[in-house]
């Protein structure tokens, strides 16, 4: 949304102007501005505050709260404008036959999903260890591929979830995707009961 000042005619005192709340709309490959509401010839805000006003009206119209607290004068004007805009939309939709859109209901208590695993930190840690050639160092020390993957997974646990060995094993088995990223078998990790 934005505020535009448009010349509407001439009088004996000079040109007449009107301020309008506009919105850019794409139609095909072209973009055009559509007037949403005429906010009057005597719009009280100076031009440098029009953008902030239009953003505030857009927030109020969408039902969201603005990030910064606006000054009371602008807030009062924006509330009146958003209210007028909603009334205008309601009256315009009353003149046309409104097609009811199908409504999909979701029973929130019936949603089930498998346990999720974290992957973001693991990807960053994996990239860091690859840049250090960590697995090559381990392989050079005589570790097999499986042992190197397991050692890397344990390093992930220390980096991303510092805790006891028992908690690290639980985290790798249940909450992290480190083993999937490294291609190591979670069965090779020490059992929680044995720690």
Can you write the helix and strand succession as a string?
Answer: EEEHHHHHHH
Categorize the overall geometry. elongated
Helix content: 40-55%
Please give the number of β-strands.
Answer: 3
Please count the helical segments. Answer: 7
Computed structural class: alpha+beta
| Strand-residue proportion | 15-25%
> What is the average per-residue confidence, as pLDDT, rounded to a whole number?
82
Uncertain parts: none
Main sheet: strand order: 1-2-3
The N- to C-terminal Cα distance equals 61 Å
The biggest sheet amounts to: 3 strands, antiparallel
Query: What radius of gyration results from the CA coordinates?
Result: 31 Å
Provide the fold topology.
Layout: E1 2-11, E2 14-27, E3 30-40, H1 50-62, H2 72-95, H3 120-131, H4 134-140, H5 145-160, H6 165-175, H7 178-182
Antiparallel strand pairs: 1-2, 2-3
List keywords for this structure.
195 residues, alpha+beta, 3-stranded antiparallel sheet, 7 helices, 3 strands, 18% strand
Task: Characterise the protein shown here.
By secondary structure, the chain is an alpha+beta fold. The protein has helices at residues 50-62, 72-95, 120-131, 134-140, 145-160, 165-175, 178-182, and strands at 2-11, 14-27, 30-40. Strands 1-2-3 form a three-stranded antiparallel beta sheet. α3 (120-131) crosses α5 and α4 (134-140) packs across α5 (145-160). The mean pLDDT is 82.
Brief synopsis:
This protein has helices spanning 50-62, 72-95, 120-131, 134-140, 145-160, 165-175, 178-182, and strands spanning 2-11, 14-27, 30-40. With 195 residues, it is an alpha+beta fold.
């Amino acid at each position: 949304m934005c505020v535009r000042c448009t010349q509407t005619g001439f009088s004996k005192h000079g040109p007449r102007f009107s301020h309008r709340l506009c919105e850019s709309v794409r139609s095909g490959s072209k973009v055009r501005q559509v007037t949403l509401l005429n906010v009057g010839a005597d719009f009280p805000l100076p031009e440098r505050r029009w953008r902030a006003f239009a953003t505030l009206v857009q927030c109020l119209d969408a039902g969201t709260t603005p990030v910064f607290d606006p000054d009371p004068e602008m807030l009062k004007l924006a509330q009146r404008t958003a209210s007028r805009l909603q009334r205008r939309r309601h009256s315009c939709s009353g003149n046309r036959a409104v097609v009811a859109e199908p409504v999909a209901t979701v029973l929130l208590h019936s949603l089930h999903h498998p346990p999720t695993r974290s992957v973001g930190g693991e990807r960053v840690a994996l990239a860091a260890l690859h840049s250090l050639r960590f697995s090559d160092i381990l392989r050079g020390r005589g570790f097999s591929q499986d042992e190197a993957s397991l050692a890397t997974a344990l390093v992930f646990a220390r980096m991303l979830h510092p805790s006891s060995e028992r908690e690290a094993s639980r985290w790798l088995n249940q909450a992290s995707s480190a083993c999937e990223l490294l291609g190591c078998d979670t069965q090779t990790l020490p059992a929680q009961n044995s720690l």
